[in-house]
């Protein structure tokens, strides 16, 4: 562990509940990470496709088998066979409907937020390592789909940031809450096999929470290697 917490990697997920892309920097504004979860899958009832059923969300299985990335200013969804389609075209929705076994569309965020608990998510590598020790087997960090992965912390130390401000790059964040986890951390993805038991291990260790979520106090740019200063 290093003395100063710093950004180890940055990740953006252009379509909610799909895999995303690793980036060198993230711009943040009052909504959150620019381009993150800007699009979502919508069911026939108008709910947002997710891993759970709530007032806003509807469980749609298999979304993590797709990856969304920005290419030349457009968001493209890549399917398990390698085919890629722009989210704003009819072919992407048609293919996705066949893939998930129900009629769905793809739509940009409107008045209903795509975020579960907060617009920016942060997670320490040490916290994931603690879950792996609890399980007695490796657990891959990408299963938790955080925007900022942080080195230089002890396990679950990021929860001490709740209620405080973080200065990172030219941005300032306010950490609002711990990040509740759902069954998607166990699921098969485009990169990883299913790994049942991850959610149960998080429940035993930290009441089902892993990492934290934050809101943006001051817009700016966060880059890989930036130090985190807690106020």
How are the SSEs placed, and which strands pair?
Layout: E1 6-12, E2 21-23, E3 25-28, E4 39-43, E5 48-50, E6 57-59, E7 67-71, E8 74-78, E9 84-86, H1 90-100, E10 104-108, E11 120-124, H2 125-135, E12 148-151, E13 165-168, E14 171-180, H3 198-206, E15 209-218, E16 220-223, E17 228-230
Structure overview:
With 231 residues, the protein is mainly β. It has 2 domains: 6-32 and 116-230, M1 Pyruvate Kinase, Domain 3 (Beta Barrel), CATH 2.40.33; 39-108, no CATH class. The protein contains 3 helices and 17 strands. The strands form 5 sheets. The chain has an 8-stranded mixed β-sheet with strand order 2-1-12-11-15-14-13-17. A 3-stranded antiparallel β-sheet has the order 7-8-9, with no helix packed on it. A hairpin with a 5-residue loop joins strand 8 (74-78) and strand 9. The radius of gyration is 17 Å and the shape is globular. The mean pLDDT is 95.
In short:
With 231 residues, the chain is mainly beta. The protein has helices at 90-100, 125-135, 198-206; strands at residues 6-12, 21-23, 25-28, 39-43, 48-50, 57-59, 67-71, 74-78, 84-86, 104-108, 120-124, 148-151, 165-168, 171-180, 209-218, 220-223, 228-230.
Record keyword descriptors for this entry:
single chain, 231 residues, mainly beta, eight-stranded mixed sheet, three-stranded antiparallel sheet, 17 strands, globular
């Amino acid at each position: 562990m290093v003395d100063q917490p710093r950004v180890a990697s940055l990740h953006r997920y252009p379509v909610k509940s799909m895999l995303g892309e690793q980036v060198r920097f993230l711009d943040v504004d009052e909504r959150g990470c620019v381009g993150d979860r800007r699009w979502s899958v919508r069911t026939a009832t108008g709910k947002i496709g997710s891993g759970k059923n709530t007032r806003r969300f509807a469980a749609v299985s298999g979304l993590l088998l797709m990856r969304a990335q920005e290419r030349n200013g457009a968001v493209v969804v890549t399917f398990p066979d390698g085919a890629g389609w722009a989210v704003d075209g009819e072919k992407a929705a048609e293919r996705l409907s066949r893939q998930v076994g129900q009629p769905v569309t793809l739509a940009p965020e409107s008045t209903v937020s795509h975020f579960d608990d907060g617009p920016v998510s942060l997670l320490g590598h040490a916290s994931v390592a603690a879950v792996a020790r609890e399980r007695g087997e490796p657990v891959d960090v990408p299963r938790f789909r955080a925007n900022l992965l942080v080195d230089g912390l002890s396990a679950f130390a990021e929860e001490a940031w709740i209620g405080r401000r973080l200065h990172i790059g030219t941005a300032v964040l306010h950490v609002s809450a711990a990040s509740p986890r759902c069954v998607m951390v166990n699921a098969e993805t485009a990169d990883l096999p299913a790994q049942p038991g991850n959610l149960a291990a998080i429940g035993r260790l930290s009441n089902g929470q892993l990492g934290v979520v934050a809101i943006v106090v001051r817009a700016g740019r966060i880059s890989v290697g930036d130090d985190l200063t807690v106020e």
